TrEMBL record:
Ranges of residues in domain Major facilitator superfamily (MFS) profile: 30-428
This protein's record includes keyword Protein biosynthesis: no
Membrane topology type: Multi-pass membrane protein
Name of the gene: SLC2A8_3
UniProt-annotated location(s): Cell membrane
InterPro entries attached to this UniProt entry: MFS_dom, MFS_ERD6/Tret1-like, MFS_sugar_transport-like, MFS_trans_sf, MFS_Trehalose_Transporter, Sugar/inositol_transpt, Sugar_transporter_CS
Stated name of the protein: Solute carrier 2 (Facilitated glucose transporter) member 8
Length: 428
């Protein structure tokens, strides 16, 4: 039987019978604690939205950044994440999933301390780079930890905690950015990784990593805590061992075989189109966009509204992904994002080039206030991404590769995703 017909036990789409003796609360706790990682991820992404509006205003900050400095402030997070992804891939195998996740707190905390107490532009940029390292590491480690902790029949639902954590972090960063200045907002960013380290101390290592390192007794204890004393963990241990035995060493020559080349090209194309949507530029500069749309002091409040919409859309996507199908959601979500970009472009074209002639102000056209077009366009754009191109890109990547190539191919695709983010990052 060929290698590419096998599916990893932890990624298999085959339905599993419900074990009525399994308990869920322990898995829920472990997933919620791990979700502090993507929460810190989202907080770092959303932080610049409010911070940039303060840092670029020489009258409201003690440390001013010019246009070039602002551009680097946004893009260095992506550069750090591009390097953090491969580091996370090495760490989960060497240290284990639990320790690797706890270690992400080091670059996160170092980055926020540099920004919060930095006295020069270089420290702010270094802080964003270190925060990016944490983002890249967490983006790889957390999905692995949750997928290996959750029972097979609920793996999809618990896997959504990663995306929910990201958008919740973005929303909280908008709220804190509205209430506090950029320094205190950065210092507040130390809280989530600190909580994660403390709480992860009481969480177990995954049984899969323990079995891969010949620690069957500890793996049994882990599954007993996660599944409950009455669950049939012996069967799960056997299935994990079988999946570990299936995997063989990966050779670079495998990428030339159609069984891997085709899914690899598809995954890379989806990653390319995901970053080509420009979602991260929108999230980084959300408040700036609304300020230029005429909201001025209310720009961060509108950003908070957009964050709430994004969180709601991410929650709805949990139900839609399996019912609507990945391909259908990508098409519908992409169409909605295209329409919103068109309306946003038309809005700025009209207000910048035609509005002054009408005498109605920067957001008016012949007496009509069109600022609502900006809010509606961004809202539709965010919904399209949060329900489709956000979760589906990573889900398809986890499903499409054969088992023995999944680690290497997924690592390359993740690196490619962050590389594209750096290349596509433009000043707004």
């Amino acid at each position: 039987m060929k290698d590419d017909i096998y599916y990893d036990y932890y990624m298999s789409d085959r339905p599993k019978k419900k074990n009525t003796n399994e308990r869920i609360w322990s898995v829920l706790i472990a997933s919620l604690v791990a979700a502090f990682g993507p929460f810190s991820f989202g907080y770092g992404m959303g932080y610049s939205s409010a911070a940039v509006t303060q840092l670029e205003n020489v009258n409201t900050t003690d440390l001013y950044l010019d246009k070039e400095g602002i551009t680097w402030f946004g893009s260095l997070l992506n550069i750090g994440a591009m390097m953090g992804g491969p580091m996370g891939g090495w760490m989960i195998d060497f240290f284990g999933r639990k320790i690797a996740l706890m270690l992400t707190a080091v670059p996160f905390s170092a980055g926020w301390l540099m920004i919060g107490f930095g006295t020069m532009e270089g420290l702010l940029h270094a802080g964003r780079f270190f925060s990016g390292l944490g983002v890249g590491m967490a983006s790889l480690i957390v999905p692995v930890y949750i997928s290996e902790t959750a029972p097979s029949r609920l793996r999809g639902a618990f896997g959504a905690f990663n995306q929910i954590g990201i958008v919740t972090g973005i929303l909280v960063s908008y709220i804190i950015g509205h209430a506090l200045n950029w320094r205190w907002s950065a210092i507040a960013g130390i809280g989530p990784p600190a909580c994660m380290v403390i709480l992860m101390t009481f969480m177990p290592e995954t049984a899969r990593w323990l079995l891969a390192h010949n620690k069957e007794e500890r793996a049994t204890q882990t599954l007993r805590w996660l599944r409950g004393p009455d669950a049939n963990i012996e069967k799960e241990i056997v299935e994990i061992k079988e999946s570990l035995n299936i995997k063989e060493k990966m050779s670079i020559r495998e990428f030339a075989k159609p069984s891997l080349l085709r899914p690899f090209v598809i995954s890379m194309a989806i990653h390319f189109f995901q970053q080509s949507t420009g979602i991260n530029a929108v999230m980084f500069y959300c408040a700036t966009i609304f300020r230029k749309a005429g909201f001025q002091d209310k720009s961060t409040m509108v950003s908070i509204l957009i964050g709430v919409i994004q969180l709601f859309a991410a929650a709805v996507s949990i139900l839609m992904i399996d019912r609507g199908g990945r391909r259908f959601l990508l098409i519908v979500g992409g169409a909605g994002m295209c329409l919103s970009c068109f309306s946003m472009g038309a809005y700025f074209y009209i207000t910048i080039n035609a509005a002054p002639k009408s005498g109605g102000g920067e957001t008016a056209y012949y007496g009509l206030d069109l600022s609502w077009v900006a809010v509606t366009s961004v809202a539709v754009y965010i919904v399209g991404f949060a329900m489709a191109w956000g979760p589906c890109t990573w889900l398809i990547m986890s499903e499409i590769f054969p088992v023995k190539a999944r680690g290497a191919a997924s690592g390359i695709a993740t690196l490619f995703n962050w590389f594209l983010l750096v290349c596509h990052h433009e000043d707004i």
